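Dig into these lines:

——
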Amino acid sequence: MLPSAGARSPLFALAITAGFVLIFIFGFLAWQRPERIPFPHSSTHVEMTINQNGPVSIAEIVRLLYAPLKVPPTQHQFVDENGVKATLPDKPRIQKSLGKEILILDLETRQLPSTDAFKKGEYDWRKVNHVSGGVFNHYTYAMIHGYDYKFIHAHNFDDRNPTWVKPSAFANHINDYKYIVFLDADAAFRHMHLPMEWLINHWEIEPKHSMTMALDPWDPEAPQFNSDANNRTYTNTGFVVVQKSEKTMEILKAWHECPDDKRYPNCSQWKKPKFHEQSAFGEYIRYDYEEYIKELPCAEANGFPGVTISECVGKFIRHYWFEKHLVKKDFQENMMQAITLPIQKLWAEKDAGVYFEQAKNVINPHQ
């Protein structure tokens, strides 16, 4: 059994963190040529000095770590770890990285418990809950691809479910970006080296599409679940791509004001009952703005492995409605793939000065 880190001091935690960073740097040094890497300077909160190259931020380390893995926005085919292939259209719309024109957004009415533990010097990854695990996935993804990132702590409504904070938050930030990509805390980017530009091209999100969401699972044996009053499958608001267009603000305003029962009588029924803002969007908003809404297959941007209904296996975006702890496991697998790949390179290429052959199993007489 591993010892608990709960009683460790902040200095001990700092030492552990520095140790992991050194492991990362060791992998990078082995990966890069020439032997020394000219690390750029940064002004993030987590820094350390490497030789005389200046401070190196964790954001820069993460970008270097994933640099060999990143997929170009126009790469025609992507093959996942199971050999499943996905392709782009012949003429993908986005040709290069959009960088800070994309915002990865976390929107929470809860604080991160891991932050409180860190401030007490008690941070322990093994004890981090799914909320922090999901947020770390989103934040790391933004760092890898150079996107902007914001964690918005929103205050609760007095009269409706906390999930109703989404439309106003999207509206308050979309004018500063081309795209806002929002995920619930129990949703995750499955392939962190696969950029949003590639996904936008793959899904053929056009300039007119103000809102993009994935469909929920639909079971023909129980069609009353996850369907609106017209028996049409709901879209899930746990993953949303908001694109700035001439209709975006109008759609978000209509969605935000839906429970006021002015434009949409009886929309207030979804203030608190499931599925809150998702039901309101599915019952009302999408019918008035059909042309500007893109609906994605559940199999590609909803659910997780093991879900058989509608094959909602989370091919690109996973949403763990149940088994929420698996969000954290997903993040671990992504990070370990990136960390261990350069370490494996040392052994495979045998050029790091650590690999030796012992041709004869005898003691050298000169020893």
Observations:
- Residues 1-19, 21-51 have pLDDT under 50 and may be disordered.
- The chain has one domain: 71-331.
- The chain is about 35% helix and 15% strand.
